[in-house]
Amino acid sequence: MEQLMRNFFLFLAKNKSLTNLAKRYGLRFGAGRFVAGATLESSITAIKRLNEKGMPVTIDHLGEFVDNEREAAEMTQHCIDAIKAISKEKLDSQLSLKMTSMGLDISDELVLSNMRKIMDAATKHNVFITIDMEDYSRCEKTLEIFKMLKSEYDNISTVIQAYLYRSLEDVQTLDEYHPNLRLVKGAYKEPQTVAYPEKSDVDNNFKKLIETHLLNGNYTAIATHDDEIIQYTKDLVEKHKIPYDQFEFQMLYGIRVERQDQLMQEGYKMRIYVPYGNDWYGYFMRRLAERPANVVFVLKGVFGK
Ligand code: FDA
């Protein structure tokens, strides 16, 4: 049943008509629990509250699957404005983005030119950028562009998904760039031909990725809500005397908030991924797919209980 629900929400996440409809109606159905606000301005209070608690954030202007140059230019400008706002408001914040918003599906020239505009602004304002990883069909191109940008700019990282068979090799290949990487389980619906179908295999691969990247001496963001993976990281760090400034934990805004506080109080760096914007629909559906129990929040949102 849970697998059925998961597939259903991942199917809904890809629906363009529903995405467009959702944009017009603002944050609905309990999405406000996972999305900080419809605009950056309305999210700044939530971001400052996290910073004041001692938690750095990475903000993400929601949006994906852009298929024309005009929209890609708008999304690029949004990122540049967000970088300026981080600097002006003195937020302890990085920026995460999806390259399909910058024209990844349109052409290499377009996405590279938009990314360089963003990276120039980020370098000027001293803001760190992470390229989120999208579905498998975009993985190779995302890594190619990441490598190109990483040889031009230092303040950039990307994401590796533990559910993909290829990921351990990617972490090893990327090592020559000494990259800061965010490691995650992976949030998209992928076929067995490219991704582990069993959770236990994904978890084992996640552990291998963490160990490999940390022991290679690289900065590692362990982005998970899973206690077993968190404990594995703590033990590994203890065993190999890895300094606390070589890694951080990351969690999503609104998910396992008490655990976030606890890890911070234990002395670990805990960064919160804070999404904002009116294109919240796909992101929200993927969070429901991860934990269908959250449907209860949606129903409360719909029926106002
Ligand atoms: P898992 O899903 O196994 O959950 C472990 C436990 O955490 C659950 O048993 C439950 O207790 C709790 N939990 C998990 N999800 C919850 C929820 N929605 N609500 C309440 N409790 C929940 N993916 C991707 O493909 N590309 C990317 O770029 C990113 N980026 C990214 C950044 C950050 C900061 C995070 C935390 C995650 C991502 N992800 C991602 C998403 C990631 O791939 C994955 O889908 C989610 O993190 C869920 O997997 P967990 O590792 O949390 O474990």
TrEMBL record:
It comes from the Bacteria. Residues 45-298 form the Proline dehydrogenase domain. Keywords: FAD, Flavoprotein, Nucleotide-binding, Oxidoreductase, Proline metabolism. Pathway: Amino-acid degradation; L-proline degradation into L-glutamate; L-glutamate from L-proline: step 1/2. It catalyses: L-proline + a quinone = (S)-1-pyrroline-5-carboxylate + a quinol + H(+). Pfam families: Pro_dh. Its cofactor is FAD. InterPro entries: FAD-linked_oxidoreductase-like, PRODH_bac_arc, Proline_DH_dom, Proline_oxidase. It is an enzyme of class 1 (oxidoreductase). Its EC number is 1.5.5.2. This is proline dehydrogenase. It comes from Fictibacillus nanhaiensis.
